[in-house]
Amino acid sequence: MRIDLHAHSTASDGTDTPAELVRNAAGAGLDVVALTDHDTVGGYGEALAALPAGLTLVTGAELSCRLDGVGVHMLAYLFDPEEPELARERELVRDDRVPRARTMVGKLQDLGVDVTWEQVARIAGDGSVGRPHIATALVELGVVPTVSDAFTPDWLADGGRAYAEKHELDPFDAVRLVKAAGGVTVLAHPAAVKRGRCVPESAIAALAAAGLDGIEVDHMDHDADTRARLRALAADLGLLTTGSSDYHGSRKTCRLGEYTTDPEIYGEITRRATGAFPVPGAGGRER
Ligand code: AMP
Ligand code: ZN
Ligand code: FE
Ligand code: FE
Fold first, then answer.
1. Which of 50, 77, 99, 223 could staple 284 via S-S, CB 3.0–4.6 A?
2. Considering the entire predicted model, what is its pTM?
3. Ligand 1 site, residue 189, Cβ cutoff 6 A
């Protein structure tokens, strides 16, 4: 079984539509893929309708959180998408992404960049708008060569010249809300230092004590030493460990299934979830 528990679609800042994503997941030989768009479940319907036979969809989201000024991403799986309190929090974060992106566009204009909100809005389409969309605009304008090159202090990195904060959840609230909605939480890329500051191990321990289910260990932004350290930490804290691609289509270099999750751990995640259940593809309309 090949299981990839972290992927983005055009519902947030990926470049595959949800239907393309599930087709590409099947094409990459995956048995299970989780749709984890930033702060939204907006891609579920399309992904479910297009789900190929032989592929199982795990519904989820990646919730934007902040702890003591450090950005934290919380993967949430198999929660009830209708549960009102968590739905409201997703909406608050998503809604605030628009004025925040406009602020970043304004900062770029002040820096002499010829970017407009209309350009960013076109790139984001219906997706939950984020820095990767702005980064794509900067690539289109020839300001930086790749999306990744926009994530520097000169441009869009945390605290960078054109950076603006958005409303984010307290990760302890996120754990509590997801659990209340029947879901399971996994701290995404907890030691991805190249993205900026990361939370200390003491914070991971505190989250574990508050009900966090697991941490993402096998991820492109973790080197071998980091993975070993995280695995040891997870064993100490009784946390599950996952692996996943964090696929963003052509907006990032990682491929679907580049990192995968152990089937036993996947089984444990599905056993803990009560808000929603993995959906096996019956061969949707695109078959
Ligand atoms: P936002 O949610 O709008 O603050 O944007 C954060 C997203 O930007 C993350 O989820 C990543 O997909 C992307 N990102 C962060 N750091 C980098 C980086 N160094 N290179 C490429 N993409 C990045
Ligand atoms: Zn993303
Ligand atoms: Fe993330
Ligand atoms: Fe992600």
1. 50
2. 0.96
3. no
